[in-house]
Structures are given as structure tokens and as C-alpha cells.
Design brief:
Largest sheet: 4 strands, mixed
Distance between the termini: 120 Å
Shape: elongated
Number of helices: 2
Radius of gyration: 33 Å
Helix content: 10-25%
CATH class of the largest domain: Mainly Beta
Order of helices and strands: HHEEEEEEEEEEEEE
Strand content: 15-25%
CATH topology of the largest domain: Immunoglobulin-like
CATH superfamily of the largest domain: Cupredoxins -  blue copper proteins
CATH architecture of the largest domain: Sandwich
């Protein structure tokens, strides 16, 4: 490019180029002086839930997870699919990670002393259910801690350690501490079957307490008789059902 008198236009000079390079080198040196001494702190304290990775399950569906929020390793990992037999099921609702939205359903669950608890994560992000009032609670996680529950999965069944009837146990999500709820411990449930593993019976009002009916060996084969001894039963009506197929019901009348 030239001027009207055909003399060349010099856009820069060697001196200006050198000055520019010096400025770039100084900026990079200052950045390195700040980042290098503090690199171990930045690596040690990543942003909460910046990365969550799971390893293939090894035994009992357990999986390990890495990420912020102090949630450690996942204890659950089973795919969501209905309730777990004998356990109280609590849902982590979709959208629970948004502060102000409902988080757990039920929010105040009643759990019998002999029952375990399973949380179903119906949200689109991972959560935990950890006993305590929050991250600053010194007793956080001592009664139960599900660890990471990935979206679409269930926690492993949680036993309430050291709980007593009447206890009200607060809990929260370690990843989203504003998600809180509580459990209320109730009396243990009565056994639904007799000691021999037979069908359970429920006497009607006025009937004898503890009376039971026995399904004889071989009764599972269609056509075989299922004899029920009634010599020790007093008069009354005895509703009964099959514990394996609860919709199979009947009533025995003793006169």
C-alpha cells in the first residue's frame, strides 16, 4: 500500500513489535505467578457437581461416583421400577433441584422402626438423602446417607441407625442443601405370617387371638387337598389370604 506520491506506508516498526511482545510476556508471567502457587487448591476444591462419573456396578448394584458436594460414593444404583418389598418408598420429585420447588414426597414420611427406606430419584439430576439439618450439622449422615442417587435410579435400602419410636429425623440433599424433609419413626409392624411360613390369618372381632390356619405340604399342586385343622379353633369367622398372592382371599366359618 502506498501514498499518493507512491511512498510506502509503514504500519508498524520493529520497536513497536518488540513492545507488544513484551506486554504479552508480562501478562502471561503475572497469570502464571497467580495460578501456579494456587493450582493445588483449585484442583482440590472443584465446583460442586462439576463432574459426576459412575463405574460399572460390582456387587449388589453399588457404584462409585466422583464430584463436588462431599457426596462420596453411591450406595444405590438400581434402576427405578416401583416400590421395594418391605421398604418405605420416598420420591425425589422432578424439578426438586430448583430452590423453592417441592423436593420429597412425602415430605414427612412415617417409617416403622423395623422398616428400611428407599428414595426414588425422579428428577433429571443426581441427589442424596442424608440425615441431619444441613452440611454444618456435626451429626450429618450418622443415621443414614444414601450417597449419590443418579437420576432415574433408586437408593439402596437404608436402615435408620440408632433411631427410636417417636424420633423425628430431619434430612437433606448434600448437593442441594435447601432440599429438606423429615422422617417420623413409628412402632414396628406386627408379623404378617406365622412361624411355619403359612398363610396369615386375621380373626374377626370376638374371635380367638393367635388362631392360625395351616396350608398342608403339597397343597401348591393343583388338585391336592389343603386340609385345615379346626379342632383348636372356637366358633367364629376367620378371613385369610395368600401372602404370595394377596388377592387370593377367603373366609373360614367355624360353627
Amino acid at each position: 500500500m502506498t501514498t499518493p506520491d507512491e511512498s510506502p506506508i509503514i504500519r508498524t516498526s520493529s520497536k513497536r513489535m518488540a513492545q507488544g511482545l513484551v506486554i504479552v510476556v508480562i501478562v502471561m508471567a503475572v497469570g502464571a505467578a497467580i495460578a501456579i502457587p494456587n493450582w493445588h487448591n483449585m484442583a482440590k476444591n472443584p465446583p460442586p457437581v462439576s463432574t459426576i462419573t459412575t463405574k460399572p456396578s460390582t456387587e449388589g448394584g453399588a457404584a462409585t461416583s466422583a464430584g463436588g458436594g462431599g457426596a462420596g460414593s453411591a450406595a444405590g444404583g438400581s434402576k427405578q421400577g416401583g416400590t421395594v418389598a418391605g421398604a418405605t418408598t420416598i420420591s425425589i420429585l422432578q424439578g426438586a433441584s430448583v430452590q423453592g420447588n417441592p423436593a420429597f414426597d412425602p415430605n414427612d414420611a412415617k417409617v416403622s422402626l423395623d422398616s428400611k427406606v428407599v428414595w426414588q430419584n425422579k428428577d433429571t439430576v443426581p441427589h442424596t438423602a442424608t440425615s441431619g439439618t444441613g452440611p454444618s450439622d456435626p451429626n450429618s449422615g450418622k443415621i443414614f446417607d444414601t450417597k449419590i442417587i443418579n437420576n432415574g435410579e433408586n437408593s439402596s435400602p437404608q436402615q435408620l441407625k440408632g433411631a427410636k419410636v417417636g424420633d423425628s429425623i430431619p434430612y437433606y440433599c448434600q448437593i442441594h442443601p435447601y432440599m429438606t424433609a423429615k422422617l417420623t419413626v413409628t412402632a414396628a409392624k406386627a408379623s404378617s405370617s406365622n412361624a411355619t411360613g403359612g398363610a396369615a390369618t386375621t380373626p374377626t372381632a370376638g374371635g380367638p387371638v393367635g388362631a392360625s390356619l395351616t396350608i398342608m405340604q403339597g397343597a401348591a399342586t393343583q388338585g391336592n387337598p389343603a386340609k385345615v385343622p379346626t379342632t383348636k379353633l372356637t366358633a367364629g369367622e376367620y378371613p385369610y389370604h395368600c401372602t404370595i398372592h394377596p388377592y387370593m382371599t377367603g373366609t373360614l366359618k367355624v360353627q
